[in-house]
Structure formats: C-alpha cells, structure tokens
Amino acid sequence: AQKVTQAQTEISVVEKEDVTLDCVYETRDTTYYLFWYKQPPSGELVFLIRRNSFDEQNEISGRYSWNFQKSTSSFNFTITASQVVDSAVYFCALRDNYGQNFVFGPGTRLSVLP
Amino acid sequence: EAGVTQFPSHSVIEKGQTVTLRCDPISGHDNLYWYRRVMGKEIKFLLHFVKESKQDESGMPNNRFLAERTGGTYSTLKVQPAELEDSGVYFCASNQAGTGDYEQYFGPGTRLTVT
Predict the structure, then answer these.
(1) Which residue of A has its CA nearest to B110?
(2) Cβ–Cβ of A50/B42 closer than 8 Å?
(3) pLDDT tens digits for B29-77?
(4) Which residues on adjacent β-strands are paired with residue B34?
(5) What gap in Å lies between CA B83 and CA B80, rounded to an integer?
(6) Is B51 on the interface with A (CB under 8 A)?
(7) Residue A94 binned pLDDT confidence (cut-offs 50, 70, 90)
(8) Residues pairing with A21 in the sheet
(9) What CA–CA distance (Å, rounded) separates B13 from A60?
(10) pLDDT tens string A59-79
(11) Partner residue opposite B103 with nearest CB, options A42, A43, A50
C-alpha cells in the first residue's frame, strides 16, 4: 500500500529563516511520482513541483528547493529566507505509475511570523 | 485560462438533507477527480472520471455519495442523505490524459458542514 508521512504537523519560523518540510513515502512500485502542493488561506491547492522516481536530481526554484532521496524514501522541501506569504499548509503527495489518483500526506502548516 | 472552479464555496446543511457539489474542470481536461479532506486529516481520493466514464471509484465511502459527469464536462457530487461525518472540504481536480501532464490542477474546494 502507498503511504505519505509528513511528521511535522505545524512549524513556526520568523521571517527570513530557512525551513525544511519533511516528506517520507512508502510504495512498492518502482516507478512513481512525487508532488508538493501549497494550500494558502484562500483554500485552493497550488501545484509546486513534480518529481519522477527515476530522476533523483535535486531542484531549485527561486527560494524553493527539493531534496529527493530514494535511499531514504524522502522528498523534503526547503524554503530559504522565508516570507510571510509562505504561510500555508503544504502537502506532499505520491502517485504510482498505474493509477491516476494521488495519495496525500496529512500536510504541514507553516506559519512565517514577521 | 480559467482554472478548476467549484460551487458552492461553502455549504451548511442539516443531517439528513441532500447537497450537490459542482466542479467545472479546466476546459479540455478529460480527467476529473474528486477528493475530500475530513476533520483536518489527509486529503483522500474519492473517484476519477475519464470524460463521462467512472475510471476508479474505489474511494467513494458509501452509497450515499453519487457522482456524475454527464457529457464529460462538469461533474456533480451528491450526498444524500448527509451525515455529520461527511463534513469536510471537497476538492475537485483535473488534468489532460495522455500528454504526460501528471500534475493535477485543483479547485478551491467546497467546505461542507453538516449539523
């Protein structure tokens, strides 16, 4: 069975601090896809990144970076120099190669204080 | 390009009543998904349409839930009769099949409160 764990329920940081959101996944599939979504206070889920299981390259996009480690089944998300606008709930999700539906983690609520 | 839209944004109903949620996917997207997040728990998959056909409805909790997608455009999710445990946020998502477009584009959700 597939499972996504986000051990951090809530994180609070002060603006300009760096913060890492953890994501650990379980799957028996050799091909799968990992995602991060952001849910701001307005409620919609905003796509941030997709990573394929066969591509372990880390990725940086502005202040965001992602560290994919197949050896530890982790796909962690780091925000550098956090800003108040980063305050949101962040979800990690997993999709296998055969199905279409996502398996989501419980989410991590990030509060960035001014 | 308009995103996924959902209506209503919030619905408050009494136990035993019926509620119908609507989702309009991104134009041209064949895949449409329903998810829900109950009581701050994980977002859980309910079902998946490919055009007007139900591809996977393994996540539907029971027969009080009925989803339709007539004509392969918008979809409705009806809860009849609603129970207290149905309260939560219902998300709809869509993507285009067969293009490698694996991410799903989500709507803002409908917050359902059953009292």
Answers:
(1) A43
(2) no
(3) 999 999 999 977 889 999 999 999 999 999 999 999 999 998 889 999 9
(4) B47, B92
(5) 9
(6) no
(7) very high
(8) A77
(9) 45
(10) 888 999 999 999 999 999 999
(11) A50
Best CA proximity match to A24, nearest among A45, A1, A44, A5: A5
Tell which residue, A95, A87, A92, A86, has the closest CA to residue A104: A92
Kindly provide the b/e burial profile for residues B88-109, where b requires at least 16 CB atoms within 10 angstroms of the residue's own CB: bbbbbbbbeeeeeeebbbbbbb
With 0-12 / 13-18 / 19 or more C-beta atoms within 10 angstroms meaning exposed / middle / buried, residue A54 is exposed
Q: Which residue has the tokens 């339709």?
A: B68
- Round to whole Å and give the CA distance between B67 and B60: 9
Nearest by CB to residue B103, choosing from A47, A103, A105, is A47
Peptide bond into A41 cis (omega under 30): no
Give B-chain residues touching A101 at CB under 8 angstroms: 33, 45, 48, 56, 59
Q: What share of chain B is helix, strand, coil (3-state, %, to 5)?
A: 5, 50, 45
